Amino acid sequence: MTASPEKTGTELQGLDTPPVVSPQEWAAAHERLLVKEKELTRARDALMAERRRMPWLAVENKYTFEGPRGKVSLLDLFEDRRQLIVYRAFFEPGVHGWPKHACVGCSMVADQVSHLSHLHARDTTLAYASRAPQADITRLKKEMGWTMPWYTITDSFDTDFGVNEWHGHNAFIRDGERIYRTYFINNRGDEAIGTVWSFLDLTALGRQEAWEKSPNGYPQSRPYKWWNWHDSYVPGAAPDPKWVEVSDAGEAAFRNREQ
Q1: CA torsion sign, 69 to 135 to 71 to 149?
Q2: Same domain (yes/no): 183, 233
């Protein structure tokens, strides 16, 4: 039997590994690194706060996509929610893998997408867009087990939003029928998108939690309390009292650990 290329055995010969130390030395090293990790977390929080204050760009063009039930507009992609994230995935003639697969990288990104109900609970929709016909998109989603809405680009949307040659996420917000582009990410940084938090951090409203430093009037609620099982969200419902009790205890434990 031939080993797969990525399997090279369990030995670490030839690797410049760190020293092996006592439990006390390991704990001290961990504490030193934790100081820097907390600094990085706080710096990232500050950057996200700055992102939420980025100026908005009005979307003036009326873009048209093809969906499973026919033509739809960019406004339709919001699915009546306040925010929209559109990922430009490369699945079309000329892309490696066509027609059986989408781009290898885009497919890996699609595999990382978290359950959409948690984004919906934050009034945010995620959609994918490619130039492949809907019949091929429907087949691909079924074969790969993907459930996100996926539309066919029919006009200059990809060129106008910087994703005609490379993948990327564009974030939008709407005020009634007025649409604004609020953020864009591609290249490095885009590959790590997939968790609920990474998606919400792209948006103008952020995670919508009370600890965030957001502009006045932005929707915010207590952290943890809005979380739910993905099949149990009810719009406007009060948090489960038992979960509030459990999460309050967890928050208190975290605070005590920080002291």
Answers
A1: positive
A2: no
Please report, as a single letter, which amino acid is at residue 45: D
- Local structure of residue 192 (DSSP, 8 states): G
Domain around 233? 222-259
Instruction: Tell me: do 196 and 75 sit in the same domain.
Output: yes
Does 75 share its domain with 190? yes
183 & 73 share domain: yes
Contact 214, 203 (CB under 8 A): no
Q: Are residues 174 and 238 in the same domain?
A: no
- Of the candidates 226, 203, 198, the one whose C-alpha atom is nearest the C-alpha of residue 214 is 203
20-77 pLDDT per residue, tens: 999 999 999 999 999 999 999 999 999 999 999 999 999 999 999 999 999 999 999 9
Cα(234)–Cα(218) distance, integer angstroms = 21
For 171, how many CA atoms within 13 A lie in the half-sphere containing its CB? 25
Closest CA to 169 of 127, 117, 134, 219: 127
Amino acid at 203: T
- Same structural domain, 73 and 192: yes
Q: What is the 3-state secondary structure (H, E, C) of 122-189?
A: CCEEEEEEECCCHHHHHHHHHHHCCCCCEEEECCCHHHHCCCCCCCEEEEEEEECCEEEEEEEECCCC
Q: Does 104 fall in a domain?
A: yes
